[in-house]
Structures are given as C-alpha cells and as structure tokens.
Design a protein that fits this description.
This protein is an all-alpha fold and about 130 residues long. It is about 70% helix and about 0% strand. The model has no long low-confidence stretch (mean pLDDT about 90).
C-alpha cells in the first residue's frame, strides 16, 4: 500500500467534479426556490469542504465519504424543498473517496459512516411519521 503525501489527481478530479455539480445544482435551486437560496449555497460550501484537505490524503478520503453521506441524507430529508439536486454531487464524493487505490477511508470508517447516515434518515422518517 502506498502512502501519499498529497491527494492523488484521480481522487482530486472526482471531488472537484462533485463540487461543480453541487454548484450547478445550487444555481438551479436558487433559480427555482429563491426563498431557500441560502440553504443551497451553504450546502454547496459544505460539499466543497473536502477540497481544503489537499495535503492530508487519508483525511481527504474520509471527508469525502462523510460529506457525501451527509449530502445524501440532506438530499433525502430536504427533497420537498429541492435538495434532491445534490444527489449527484453526493455520489461523486462517494466515488472520490474510493478512487485512489492507496488512499481509501478504511474499512470501519467506510461501514460506520453510511450506516450512521441511514440511521439518521430512519430516525427522521420515524419522527416525522410519528409526530
């Protein structure tokens, strides 16, 4: 296994593509639902947060997985206000977290984060249906 000093180009490219897709989605969201424009912009900034970790490859991979899961959860919960436009960005961040062979988040982290996201969606749905 290779230890990288910087994020590999293939991983970086997927993450940048995710941020571009998130920005396009935010633009569409602001154009359609101007009342929720700030939510779209903030969500795009969160999607771009892994790009600040270029010098720490393992943290970058984990941040891509975490932010991708968070975006997917946010898109499912906020589907009514149009947050579903962030689903492609979330999927691209998932790809970015596993794109480089020597720089992946780790088995336990890769299992725990999506399970926690699924639990959050189930808890929200149970709360929403119950209340």
């Amino acid at each position: 296994m290779t230890e990288y000093r910087r994020v590999p180009a293939c991983q970086w490219g997927w993450a940048v593509a995710a941020v571009v897709v998130a920005a396009i989605g935010a633009g569409l969201g602001v154009a359609v639902a101007t009342y929720f424009g700030a939510l779209f912009v903030i969500t795009t900034l969160v999607a771009a947060s892994p790009l600040a970790l270029r010098e720490s490859p393992k943290t970058f991979a984990r941040a891509c997985l975490s932010v991708g899961t968070g975006l997917l959860v946010w898109a499912l919960i906020g589907v009514i206000v149009g947050m579903f436009v962030f689903i492609p960005a979330a999927l691209l961040l998932f790809v970015a977290s596993f794109a480089a062979r020597g720089n992946r988040p780790g088995v336990w982290f890769a299992l725990a984060v999506p399970l926690a996201g699924a639990a959050a969606v189930v808890a929200f749905v149970a709360l929403f249906v119950r209340g």
